[in-house]
Write the structure tokens for this entry.
Amino acid sequence: MSKKVTQVIPVPYLLISFSLIPIFLIANFLPAHASTEMYLRIDNFLEQHLFGTVGFWSSLFPFSSRLSTSYISLFGPIFAAVSVYLTHAKIVIDPEQYRSLTLKKYVYALFVIAVLQAIFVSINYFGDVDLAGHNHKFRLFGVNALMYSIFASAMLLCYYAITLLGYVVFCYIPRLFIERWRNGVL
């Protein structure tokens, strides 16, 4: 009987907390519309040189929501990469749970994760969704700054989850397959 491995995925809560704070500050303390010279310059910079209007934003507070989506699009991948770097050194995953994973199942999972990541990138960098003009389910997040900041924070947390999932699918599991192949178990 094999010894049961206690799985550990350490979450860098401090990093995640510090990365979420600016979203709440931007959405709740900056003006909804760029009204002063400084805010107009920032808004112009966002529109001309950064991402413009991408991701989930609100037409009721376009300046703060565009600034939030630019923050998420710019710093989300950086924070997620640092998070995975901090996590991967201390992560303990039981390789026995992947013993029944065949190459066919893995390729299917690889495809699904790649499509999920492509959709996520497409929404956050190439498309835009006005939450204020959306149906009843998502409209709540587009009419209230606090609810918008919660929704935007959830989008930033998706970066963490998708990046960690990508690490497992694109790095960890292939190492297991290579190890199995070398041992003649595959």
Observations:
- The first strand starts at residue 55 and ends at 57.
- The chain has six helices and two strands.
- The two ends are 21 Å apart (CA to CA).
